[in-house]
Amino acid sequence: MTTTGPFEPRASFDNWGPYALLAAGVVAAAVSARPVGMGPPAMAVSAVLVVAGAVLQVWWSRVRRSEPGPSRTGVCLYFLRWALGFVLTWLNPFFAFYAVTGYYTAGRELPRRLVMPGLFLTAITMAGSEVGGMPPRGTLLWVGFFLVLGLNMGLVSVFTRFALQEQDRARFQAETIAELERTNTALQQALDENAALHAQLLVQAREAGVADERRRLAAEIHDTLAQGLTGIIAQLQVVANTSDEGQAREHVQRAIDLARHSLGEARRSVHNLAPVALAEAGLPEALKQTVAEWGERTGVRAEFTVTGTAEQLHDEVSATLLRIAQEALSNAARHAHAGRVGVTLSFLTDEVILDIRDDGRGFDPLDLPARTHAGGFGLDGMRARAERIAGSLAVESEPGNGTALSARVPLVRHDR
């Protein structure tokens, strides 16, 4: 089954139109031969030229298949056909049916610089036919010939200009479509590359998160369990070196208290491997519970506040802010010696802010000791957590005036 393309009707007319017009000219000339005064010699010459025109058209069709568009051979054939049409029209004006072929083929068969000359020659032939035949007889017919020729050229120029503009517009549209296709192809390639890069970044972020969590756990074990065990050892050494039963019982009790505290810290560390509090509640509730439990455990007055309209955040955002809050509270318990801690969670239009303030002893942010393998997780770890989700961490503190910590992260809503 075949489908008809948008250019097939035009292609069919290009192939068969000249034959049809030549046949129409032959019929019209045969009917009008006696009225226009064609004698036997003129009829014989016309018959030869008609056969030549048909042969020429057959040759032209073959040339067009091998050389589509304007070519040197096509130019020669165009003007040869014009000459045949001009002579036939001179012999009988009704052969103008054949000569008119030059009007609609000039734009496709001739290069742009020869289009107007080809149309002008065709207009001469048509003007001669329209005034009754060539050559015009008498001054009046010559005047009429030039008037008709001017009118023909005026109309031809206007229509040719429109046709050329339409060709330019069609060519520009074709080039634009081709450029859009190239752009779309390049865009699709870029999207594919971005997708691959995004997948790679996710893998790297996951790996970085695993390494980050390992460092946090290592530091937390050092800062809690290792210190607790060191204290227990010290208390038991005192017991081993004293003969005073009362003093021994006191140090044993201290060792038991340290062991219980260390056990609690161990359980908390294991619990914090994943933010279990977020599994059953949103971030505000999880933070509220965390702050309350921390206050009860440390005896420090702790307050939690939510501002703005609470949103259901993406799991990664919620987990990051909860981890930062836990780490900040842990640092406050170990280092700040604060009497009061305030935690505020603020929901803005496009970001979430977690503020943690205490009235402890503070420190100089510019004079922090370099972190060592024995050091705590601290501010660097919290900052790394925030930056991993395109956020930031700011710290304001000075000795004796407490500490204010602010974590700002993008507000990314829950994706389910």
Care to give the gist of this entry?
The protein has helices spanning 8-36, 40-66, 72-91, 96-99, 101-109, 112-130, 139-240, 245-271, 277-280, 283-298, 315-336, 378-388, and strands spanning 301-307, 340-347, 351-358, 392-397, 403-410.
Describe this structure in words.
By secondary structure, this protein is an alpha+beta fold. It is built from 12 helices and 5 strands. It has helices spanning 8-36, 40-66, 72-91, 96-99, 101-109, 112-130, 139-240, 245-271, 277-280, 283-298, 315-336, 378-388, and strands spanning 301-307, 340-347, 351-358, 392-397, 403-410. It has a 5-stranded mixed beta sheet with strand order 1-2-3-5-4, with helices on one face. α11 links the parallel β1 and β2. α3 packs antiparallel against α5.
